[in-house]
Amino acid sequence: MSDEVLCLQGIGKTFNQGTPLESTVLRDIDLRLGRGELTALIGPSGSGKSTLLNLIGLLDVPSAGELYLQGRPTRDSDDTTRTHLRNQALGFVFQFHHLISAFSVLENVLMPLIIRSGRPSADAVELARSLLREVGLEDLADKKPTEISGGQQQRVAIARALITRPPLLLADEPTGNLDSKTAASVFELFRRINEQFGCSILVVTHDPRLAASCPRTVQLVDGRIVSDELSKSSSG
Ligand SMILES: Nc1ncnc2c1ncn2[C@@H]1O[C@H](COP(=O)(O)OP(=O)(O)OP(=O)(O)O)[C@@H](O)[C@H]1O
User: Fold this and answer.
1) Subcellular location, in the record's words (predicted)?
2) Of 64, 120, 128, 133, which residue is most buried, by most CB within 10 angstroms?
């Protein structure tokens, strides 16, 4: 298997194609993410960051180009294949974590496995507990999401995204509603996860300081990649 988790070739996205409302929001995007890379995606509001993340997450289909996930072309694949690939290769963390308030922290972390195969095995529960330990929340496993802070909720969402051991974790403004100190600690967690689990992480952020803490930063402007740089200050 190649060391490339993701490869975008000439990706474009046009909404409402062929209508008077047609608008092209992504053009000629070429991007490769290697195994275990931690990359920040930055750009002004409306530059196309979420649109790009939705394409990479196989939640939407490009209008042009090809998107390879773990070496497999995806553009012409059917819904079943895309769903399978999404479940097997991707983890998602969003600004609003969508934890289920009726379930405990531990059950929320287990949810992707429960959805996949019903009642979780003892091994799955042990994995969920070890992930909660990893994100510093093992003592809160039995709490409900409403009983913990926003930063802790986001850590639960990160543990949940990791339980399927995805080779690529996608995070769309995961710290958008957190104060700057908590946001920095969530990024620190991304760096640790990236080192320990070796999963590639692509994280959208508006915050230049958080982006600078990542080894690589890709910048979008008006739907095009205008820079792709390795950080000098990052330890990675
Ligand atoms: N479903 C859609 N139909 C039509 N236009 C869309 C659709 N989704 C997004 N757009 C447009 O695409 C452009 C890029 O939006 P996108 O949300 O990707 O930007 P962004 O960089 O993530 O912005 P922000 O930082 O504000 O979240 C915007 O002009 C937006 O209005």
Assistant:
1) Cell inner membrane
2) 128
Q: What is the tens place of the pLDDT at every residue in 43-71? A: 999 999 999 999 999 999 999 999 999 99
Q: Ligand 1: which residue has its CA nearest to atom 26?
A: 45
DSSP class of residue 155?
A: H
Ligand 1 surroundings by CB, under 6 angstroms: 15, 23, 25, 43, 45-51
pTM for this prediction: 0.91
Domain annotation covers residue 143: yes
| pLDDT value, residue 107 | 96
Determine, yes or no, domain membership for 116.
yes
**Burial call 114-147: b when 16+ CB within 10 Å, e when fewer:** eeeeeebeeebbebbbebbebbebeebbeebbee
Kindly state whether residue 235 falls inside one of the protein's structural domains.
no
Residue-wise pLDDT tens digits, 206-233: 888 889 989 999 999 999 999 999 986 5
**Dist. CA 155 → ligand 1 center (Å):** 27
| Structural domain that includes position 155 | 4-230
Asked if residue 186 belongs to a domain, the reply is yes
| Mutation test residue for ligand 1: of 42, 49, 53, 221, the one with most atoms within 8 Å of CB | 49
In angstroms, the CA 179 to CA 172 distance is: 16
